[in-house]
Structure formats: structure tokens, C-alpha cells
């Protein structure tokens, strides 16, 4: 297949020779860098999908876009999922697996909390979607302490594709009216969970409402995740995680505990994924899906080149060699 592409590129027309020599190098390099792009690093994402119900998952255009967003991530936390019978997530998973099937045998799985909240009309689930091929769930645990409206559903993951083989994710979709107390309360979740599992490699992620009027600069002294310097905030205060032009707030955040975890993260990889810009979708379409953008961070791979499959390296080299024969 590749040889065919290359043959058609390397024309026998002498006038084309000069240009094709460049292509000879460019083609394999492009393929290789695309491939490295796929394996270099392990993405963890969080997306407030604002009332993700079966009706959202049944809209094929929206489902397609959700699939494109989630398929970039090795683990993707979805917040504000309303799917008590699991049908909406099942549709997303089957679309995700279908999309991947063309490239490899990878599949996606999910782990979800029960509906959480204090009013029957607004029960929301935390859902983690992850690549079955490279990620394993090694523990899960529903926190029950105060002061949360939707207490974190804590999951421990392991993966051979990261520099940090086992880590714990603590999600939060805070109640805006008590965001300061809930973000501060994450410290207690951290203490309980890290003791129970004897593992302090913990990441907090989600829609904390940690910006604009809900959490001001002066509120920070009351939040232990800010005052204790062993926690690092990877999504900055100047980021805008909201879709609307009118609002400019860093509501969604990713925070990690400890130097071990921090060192395993690619520097400056914490960011908002503006998929409207990336996929060239009008704001109206993006807002149909949610009023938030996804956020993400990339973990380093244990050893980059070892993961590039030998056949691919061989293919690239042979294309280069053939060019000069
Ligand atoms: C969530 O979506 C469902 C339809 O899928 C709708 O009936 C419900 O009112 C929505 N809830 C909120 C809080 O927007
Ligand atoms: C995606 O899910 C919908 C169900 O909502 C299903 O009808 C459709 O066939 C799926 N598409 C793919 C490509 O799996
Ligand atoms: C990582 O590798 C070990 C040994 O090869 C294997 O037992 C384990 O299941 C792998 N873990 C994952 C998450 O793939
Ligand atoms: C906890 O983990 C550390 C290494 O991270 C290990 O040295 C220690 O023995 C563990 N403690 C228990 C009780 O398992």
C-alpha cells in the first residue's frame, strides 16, 4: 500500500525528480511523526458534557463530535452525565470502538458512579471512559463525606504507557454556591484515599467552578489545595473553559499532588481543548453539546521509541532506502 503511494509520488518524469527526492524524505518523516504523535504521551481529559442524556447521544452529528473529542484521550472524565440505564454511554462507547476498529483492535470501556445530587430532578454521574488496551481500573470508591453535593467518585488506574504506572483520579463537579468549601474538601478526600491505597499520586480534575465570582483570589487562603504547595494547578487562572464569548472563566481545572506526578507530566501540556476552532464548528454547534470546553493534560511515556512498533520503523526506513536506489 505504502509502496503504491510512494511509486505514484516518485515519478519517472525527469522534470519531477528533484521534487520527489524531497518527498522521499518527507513522506516517511510525516508518517513517522504522525505515529509518534499518537503514542507520545498519555492524555487525561475532563469534559463537562452538560446533561449528557440519551437524546444527546442519539443525535448522530453530536455523537460523532463527542467521539472525536473523547478518542483523543486515553482517559476521559465526563461530568454531568444523566444516564441511569447506561444507554447513552453505551452508544458513545460503541461509536468510539467502531471508529478505532479501522486502525487497531483497541476498545473503550467505562466506569461510572451512581446518580449523585440532592434533588431527584438533578442526579448526575461521573463517568470515566478509557482505552481498554492501555489502561486498567485497579480500584474504585465512592466518597461519602461532607461537604459535597456530588461527592467524588474516586478511581485508581494503572497503565504501562505512562511514566507513572499507578495513579488515582478524583473528579469533582462542584456546586457553584459552595465551590470554595467543596474544592477545600478535596483535601480530605485526598487524605482518606491516599491512606487507604497507600498511594499519593493523585490528580484532581473536573468543573470546580474555580473562577469568576464563585472562587475569587481572596478565597484561596481557605482552600488547602492552594495553600499547600505540594499541589500543582495545571490549568491557569487566565484560561477560559467556557464556550460562550460573554463569559471568560477558568472553571475547569486539573491539579496534581506531589513531585513524582508533576515530573511525569509533559511541561505546559495542561490546556483547554477548543474543539470548535480545531474542528471548524460554529459556536452554536459547540454550545449544543455543552457550555464548557474539555480540558486536558499529557503524561510522559516511559520510553518513546520502544513503543513505536518495529514494522513501522522498518517501513519508514525502507521507503527512504528505496528512494535512493
Ligand atoms: C436534560 O436533558 C433532557 C432531555 O434529554 C431534558 O428532558 C432535561 O430537562 C434536561 N435537564 C436539564 C437540567 O437541562
Ligand atoms: C452510533 O450510535 C448510534 C446510537 O445512538 C447508532 O445508531 C450508530 O449506528 C452508531 N454508529 C456507529 C458508527 O457505531
Ligand atoms: C502492564 O504490563 C504487565 C506486564 O507485562 C501486565 O501484567 C499488565 O497487565 C500491564 N498493565 C496494563 C494496564 O496493560
Ligand atoms: C506504602 O508504599 C511505599 C512505597 O510507595 C512502601 O515503601 C510502603 O511499604 C507501603 N506501605 C504499606 C503499608 O504498604
Automatic annotation (TrEMBL):
GO terms for biological process: DNA catabolic process. SUPFAM superfamilies: DNase I-like (SSF56219). InterPro entries: DNase_I, Endo/exonu/phosph_ase_sf, Endo/exonuclease/phosphatase. GO terms for molecular function: deoxyribonuclease I activity; DNA binding. Keywords: Disulfide bond, Endonuclease, Endoplasmic reticulum, Glycoprotein, Hydrolase, Nuclease, Signal. The keyword Glycoprotein applies. The keyword Glycoprotein applies. Residues 45-292 form the Endonuclease/exonuclease/phosphatase domain. Gene3D superfamilies: Endonuclease/exonuclease/phosphatase. This is Deoxyribonuclease-1-like 1.
Amino acid at each position: 500500500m505504502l509502496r503504491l503511494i510512494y511509486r505514484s509520488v516518485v515519478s519517472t518524469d525527469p522534470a519531477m525528480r528533484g521534487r520527489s527526492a524531497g518527498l522521499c524524505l518527507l513522506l516517511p518523516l510525516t508518517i513517522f511523526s504522525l505515529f509518534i504523535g499518537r503514542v507520545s504521551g498519555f492524555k487525561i481529559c475532563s469534559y463537562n458534557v452538560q446533561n449528557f442524556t440519551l437524546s444527546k447521544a442519539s443525535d448522530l452529528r453530536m455523537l460523532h463530535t463527542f467521539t472525536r473529542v473523547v478518542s483523543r484521550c486515553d482517559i476521559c472524565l465526563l461530568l454531568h452525565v444523566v444516564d441511569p440505564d447506561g444507554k447513552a454511554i453505551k452508544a458513545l462507547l460503541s461509536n468510539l470502538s467502531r471508529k478505532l476498529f479501522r486502525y487497531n483492535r483497541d476498545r473503550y470501556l467505562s466506569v461510572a458512579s451512581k446518580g449523585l445530587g440532592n434533588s431527584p430532578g438533578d442526579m448526575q454521574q461521573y463517568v470515566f471512559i478509557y482505552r481498554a488496551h492501555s489502561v486498567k481500573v485497579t480500584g474504585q470508591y465512592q466518597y461519602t463525606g461532607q461537604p459535597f453535593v456530588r461527592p467524588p467518585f474516586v478511581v485508581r488506574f494503572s497503565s504501562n504507557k505512562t511514566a507513572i504506572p499507578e495513579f488515582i483520579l478524583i473528579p469533582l463537579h462542584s456546586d457553584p454556591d459552595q465551590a470554595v468549601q467543596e474544592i477545600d474538601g478535596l483535601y480530605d478526600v485526598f487524605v482518606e484515599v491516599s491512606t487507604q491505597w497507600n498511594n499519593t499520586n493523585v490528580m484532581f480534575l473536573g468543573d470546580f467552578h474555580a473562577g469568576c465570582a464563585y472562587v475569587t483570589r481572596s478565597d484561596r487562603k481557605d482552600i488547602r489545595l492552594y495553600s499547600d504547595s505540594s499541589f500543582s494547578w495545571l490549568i491557569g487562572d487566565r484560561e477560559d473553559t467556557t464556550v460562550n464569548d460573554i463569559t471568560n472563566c477558568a472553571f475547569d481545572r486539573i491539579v496534581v499532588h506531589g513531585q513524582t506526578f508533576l515530573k511525569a507530566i509533559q511541561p505546559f501540556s495542561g490546556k483547554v481543548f477548543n474543539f470548535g476552532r480545531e474542528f471548524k464548528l460554529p459556536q452554536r454547534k459547540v454550545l449544543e453539546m455543552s457550555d464548557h470546553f474539555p480540558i486536558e493534560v499529557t503524561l510522559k511515556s516511559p520510553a518513546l521509541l520502544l513503543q513505536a512498533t518495529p514494522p513501522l520503523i522498518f517501513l519508514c526506513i525502507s521507503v527512504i532506502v528505496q528512494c535512493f536506489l
